[in-house]
Automatic annotation (TrEMBL):
Residues 217-435 form the Peptidase M1 membrane alanine aminopeptidase domain. Its EC number is 3.4.11.-. Its cofactor is Zn(2+). Binds 1 zinc ion per subunit. This is Aminopeptidase. It catalyses: Release of an N-terminal amino acid, Xaa-|-Yaa- from a peptide, amide or arylamide. Xaa is preferably Ala, but may be most amino acids including Pro (slow action). When a terminal hydrophobic residue is followed by a prolyl residue, the two may be released as an intact Xaa-Pro dipeptide. It comes from Limosilactobacillus avistercoris.
Length: 844
């Protein structure tokens, strides 16, 4: 594939008049786009994809043009360079790819319906209208939409509707913005609206398949988020309204279109009367993420896709800052510790991983940049690190200046570091350079050498890794003042350990608060000291110990066999984040045991011992006045008890299911997935399977849908698994946006793994055709690699994927995921004997 040509260099649009006539029945788009701009040469190009161009006119006269589908351009010869107004007539198909302009399908009272929505990031605006489809090519847009309209339909866009004439809906011109942020939608929609303190109208829109109350939570969060950001950024929200729209079919999680944010239904709508706290926190962070973008990404936009991390990392940090301000009782930064931090640390330890900042050489690579663990999670950790270094006052001052300097224009990472550096009097750019331009992260080893406390840094790898001698500028966050704020050297000596220990009166620790992107390997003396004072550590610090144990063991710098005897010391913690880290290690231990073997029985017995007291303490039902931690910990320990085949837990779940069989949707949301899954596994039948699958098809409650997916895919009946896989390509049962979750769950089911693996290999071409242009496509490879861990599966994985290694957008994923599986195979071969021995000793 060719290298990207920057069209903006030769033609700089300033305004678009876009007319679209959309016929849903015929699945066609007829368009006329008029672009005003400056041409620096007579030969210019604009982007198009799948457009059939009938004419290009300048000043009402036809001009020569050619269409290059490989380059996705219309190449135009102008009468002369300078200020020009182009008018392009074209037609295009309405597709089912969830990109460009596309229909979403849903049912109301059994009747099939559709609404039309858009998805233009990264380079899909060109499927809707000719444009210079590059982030830097900011312009204003006047949108006019006509469609096969019937009474009761609503049409919305980035800006308010101006007027309707002859069935055409005309919208007010936008502010100056990038093409990928243009959006509109129409269909039978319901909405709820409110107004912020500063007068911004906020609305939530959804299909009429949902109960009106499902819009309430999102409306409250969106209103409060905009009010928070206006104060935090000290910059007004730049548009008259902020619409949040739930689309039934949506490939990404959500998209920050300016003034019209689009979401998967699962990430916007929820039943306020029966949704788990976990799901409420997730939905709230998605909404606050997208609204953070309205300033950082939309008002000021990255200059080119290589700075995509700048948009996403920043919004990823700010989603937590905002939710923490709106609902401080949720302790949302603990969610950051259980989601973003481990995701980034796991992925970033594989050799070959991309750096946060990556050059983009061809169009297919743009979508491949959306590596969530790096661009979102690691990048957010970098910014949390910066925030911890400079404090909120400097952060807010720097951001205000950044927005003021670059609003309605574009910026680079260097521009942000300059603004934050001036506000904080720190050379932020130099510190961040080592983190953004280099892949990976360090392990800092703390040890006593000849009585001296020494620290050294070295790149950490899980699996084989090529050590390139990289060094990082590490914010150490040590609890001894003798340690420097930033460690730049490979090795530093902090002085006589006994004197330092006596002087400080507590065990030596690094990365206190777990805000910096590194892990710590303590020698035995230092670790024993920490473990002797375990009760003095808060939840985040205890969690960090468990997190680092797990990663060091994955990297074979510590043995899982050494960790097993330490786990009971954490098992009675009342903290959700400690329990999450504890059972993450337990899940890693499962790879060492063969299903249905004596060694698996030993592991189940060990897990049963770990979870017993907590299950007894928390039970199955919520208790009056219990803490958020208890609510969030209950499903973790009950899941462990069910894995351990705790008979009381299995029978209790069965009893709850039996009593509530007629209304499973109304089961308490935090235990509902466990209850239904337990029933399928231990009391399942073909009738139950059919009933649950029909429930999945009919319900509009996204949380319940997710629970049913997890339950149905846990069946051990091979004939039912085959039936399920037959539904993979039936969009009336499983929408393409949800398919990866179904595939992953059956692959993780020992009784379904072969069937799921056979399906993806046999039907890869169908999968590529259906979701291949999507940024989520490569993650089918990731989820497969995350589950496979045997030599046989490694060989099959390589045999299937290595021939595809030169496919644009898949190269890095395939290369890395082979290493991921190889690392696990090697780890298991090396340590299995010791792990089984340690398990048997633990249950003796």
């Amino acid at each position: 594939m060719s290298t990207i040509k920057r069209l903006y260099e030769k033609f700089q649009p300033s305004h678009y008049d876009i007319f679209l006539d959309i016929n849903r029945e015929k699945k066609t788009i007829t368009g006329k786009t008029t672009i005003t701009g400056n041409a620096s040469e007579q030969q210019i190009s604009v982007n198009q994809k799948f457009l059939t161009v009938s004419s290009v006119k300048v000043g009402g006269k036809d001009v020569p043009f050619t269409v290059d589908n490989d380059e996705e351009t219309i190449n135009i010869t102008l009468p002369k360079a300078g200020e020009v107004t182009l008018t392009i007539d074209y037609s295009a198909p309405l597709t089912d790819t969830m990109m460009g302009i596309y229909p979403s399908y849903y049912k109301v009272d059994g009747e099939k319906k559709q609404i039309i929505g858009t998805q233009f990031e990264t380079t899909f605006a060109r499927q809707a209208f000719p444009s210079v489809d590059e982030p830097e090519a900011k312009a204003t847009f006047s949108l006019a939409v006509k469609f096969d309209e019937h009474p009761g339909e609503t049409v919305i866009a980035n800006m308010p509707e101006d007027h309707v004439s002859d069935g055409v809906h005309y919208f007010q011109p936008t502010v100056r913005m990038s093409t990928y942020l243009v959006a509109f939608a129409f269909g039978e929609l319901q909405s709820k609206k409110t107004t912020t303190e500063s007068g911004v109208e906020v609305g939530v829109f959804a299909t009429k398949a949902h109960q009106p109350k499902e819009l309430d939570f999102a409306l409250e969060i969106a209103k409060k988020a905009i009010e928070f950001y206006e104060k935090f950024y000290q910059t007004p929200y730049p548009l008259p309204h902020s619409w949040q729209l739930a689309l039934p079919d949506f490939s990404a999680g959500a998209m920050e279109n300016w003034g019209l944010v689009t979401y998967r239904e699962a990430y916007l709508l929820l039943d306020p009367d029966n949704t788990s706290l976990d799901m409420k926190r997730l939905v709230a962070t998605v909404i606050t993420h997208e609204l953070a973008h309205q300033w950082f990404g939309d008002l000021v936009t990255m200059k080119w896709w290589d700075d995509l991390w700048l948009n996403e990392s920043f919004a990823n940090m700010m989603e937590y800052v905002a939710v923490d301000a709106i609902h401080p009782e949720w302790k949302i930064w603990e969610l950051f510790q259980t989601s973003e931090a481990p995701m980034a640390l796991q992925r970033d330890a594989t050799d070959g991983v991309q750096s946060v900042h990556v050059q983009v050489n061809n169009p297919a690579e743009i979508d491949a940049l959306f590596d969530g663990a790096i661009v979102y999670a690691k990048g957010a950790r970098m910014l949390v690190m910066v925030r911890a270094l400079i404090g909120d006052d400097a952060l807010r001052k720097g951001l205000k200046n950044y927005f003021e300097a670059h609003k309605y224009h574009n910026a680079t990472g260097a521009d942000l570091w300059e603004a934050l550096g001036k506000a904080s009097q720190l050379d932020i750019g130099a510190i961040m350079q080592s983190w953004l331009e280099q892949p990976g992260y360090p392990v800092v080893e703390a040890k006593i050498v000849d009585g001296q406390l020494q620290l050294s840094q070295k790149q950490f790898f899980i699996g084989d890794g090529q050590d390139a001698g990289r060094l990082w500028q590490i914010p150490l966050n040590a609890n001894y003042k003798v340690a420097p704020q930033i460690m730049k050297e490979q090795t530093i000596n902090l002085g006589d350990y006994q004197e330092l220990r006596q002087e400080n009166g507590k065990p030596f620790r690094l990365n206190v608060g777990n805000n910096s992107h590194f892990i710590v390997k303590y020698d035995q003396t230092l670790m024993d000291d920490i473990l002797d004072h375990l009760d003095e550590l808060n939840a985040i610090d205890q969690r960090q110990l468990l997190q680092d144990f797990r990663l060091l063991a994955d990297g074979q710098q510590l043995s899982y066999a050494e960790i097993i005897p330490l786990l009971p010391r954490f098992a009675d913690s009342h903290s959700e984040i400690v329990n999450t880290a504890l059972y993450a290690i337990v899940n890693k231990l499962k790879q060492f045991v063969t299903p249905d073997s004596d060694e698996e029985k030993a592991l189940k017995q060990f897990v049963g011992q770990l979870s017993a007291k907590q299950v007894q303490r928390l039970g199955w039902q919520p208790q009056a006045g219990e803490s958020n931690d208890d609510q969030l910990t209950r499903p973790i320990v009950l899941s462990a008890a069910l894995y351990a085949e705790n008979k009381d837990a299995i029978e209790a779940a069965h009893e709850i299911f039996t009593k509530n069989h007629a209304q499973l949707e109304k089961l308490p949301a935090d235990i509902r997935p466990l209850v239904i899954r337990n029933e399928v596994k231990h009391y399942g039948s073909k009738d139950l399977f059919a009933e649950l699958l029909e429930d999945y098809r009919e319900t509009t409650d996204a949380s319940y849908k997710s629970d049913l997916n997890g339950a149905i895919t846990s069946t051990t009946d091979h004939s039912l698994i085959a039936e399920l896989i037959n539904e993979f390509e039936n969009a009336d049962t499983i929408k393409p946006q949800d398919l990866r979750g179904w595939y992953r769950n059956i692959l993780a089911n020992n009784d379904g793994q072969q069937a799921a693996w056979d399906w993806i290999r046999n039907d890869w071409d169908w999968l590529e055709k259906t979701v291949g242009g999507d940024m989520e496509f490569a993650t089918y490879i990731t989820v497969t690699a995350n589950i496979f861990h045997t030599p046989a599966r490694l060989a099959e994985f390589k045999q299937f994927f290595e021939p595809k290694i030169n496919t644009p957008g898949l190269t890095r994923e395939i290369t890395m995921d082979i290493k991921v599986i190889e690392g696990k195979v090697n780890l298991i071969q090396t340590e299995k004997g010791a792990v089984i021995k340690a398990l048997n000793k633990a249950i003796a």
